[in-house]
Amino acid sequence: MNTELTDIDYKRKMQRRKEIQEQRLANMTDEKGLIIVHTGNGKGKTTAGLGMVIRSLGHGYKVAIVQFIKGAWQPAEKEVLEKWKNQLEFYAMGEGFTWETQDRERDILMANKAWEKAKDFILNADYKLVLLDEINIALKLDYLNLDDVLNTLAEKPEDTHVILTGRGAKQELIDRADLVTEMKLIKHPFKEQGIKAQAGIEF
To answer: What are phi and psi of 21, to 5 degrees?
Structure first.
């Protein structure tokens, strides 16, 4: 095999790819606030949302997080994010997972309290990013009015990004979103090996 020829071909290929990529980027000039959905049965939906939160904080933007289901325990991420308390509002407003609370009426009440808080942030142009953690579960269980959520998203300021996490995202929300990622479960230590939730991984 002629190694020199292979290197030349590779360089030409990468140069062409670079030209195509630069042309694509040159044609993309618009910016807008995105509706982002992270759903699916796999792990990582909240974690992906928190990654965007950290990026936004790093740019100096104001950010809000409202957690709908979690909240009976103190999430470790809340401790870390306290360092950005001048830029960040963080509300863990659930009372735990539904099988722990066993009180549908109270779950509905708490979900709607969280939603009222979330609406304030979504409609406030001062906040560049709003993370609604596990709201998809609250919608799936009919704790919240889907039309109210969709109408509020339609009214958000033009530059505001909203992330909605949780398994079982409603099709209407998926249709409305700009970016949808489905986390697919392939393997999980809890199921396959009986390994419990661990600090730094699940919480």
So the answer is: -65, -45
* Whole-number Å distance between alpha carbons of 66 and 89: 8
Residue type, 133: D
Task: Count the neighbouring beta carbons within 10 Å of the beta carbon of residue 122.
Answer: 22
pLDDT-flagged residues of the chain (< 70): 1-5, 28-29, 70-75, 94-102, 190-191, 199-200, 203
CA 86 to chain centre: 21
Name the CA radius of gyration of the chain, rounded.
21
Closest CA to 113 of 136, 137, 144: 144
Burial (CB count <10 Å: 0-12, 13-18, 19+), residue 31: exposed
Quote the pLDDT of residue 158: 95
Q: Which long-range contacts (CB under 8 A, 24 or more apart) does 82-90 make?
A: 84/57, 87/57, 87/60, 87/61, 87/62, 87/63, 88/53, 88/57, 88/62, 88/63, 88/64, 89/62, 89/63, 89/64, 89/65, 89/121, 89/127, 90/64, 90/65
**Active-site residue numbers?**
41, 43, 45-47, 55, 97, 99, 134
Q: Determine phi and psi for 144, rounding to 5 degrees.
A: -120, 160
Q: For residue 124, which of 86, 164, 162, 85 has the smallest C-alpha distance?
A: 162
Structure tokens at 35: 């509706």
Tokens of 42: 């796999």
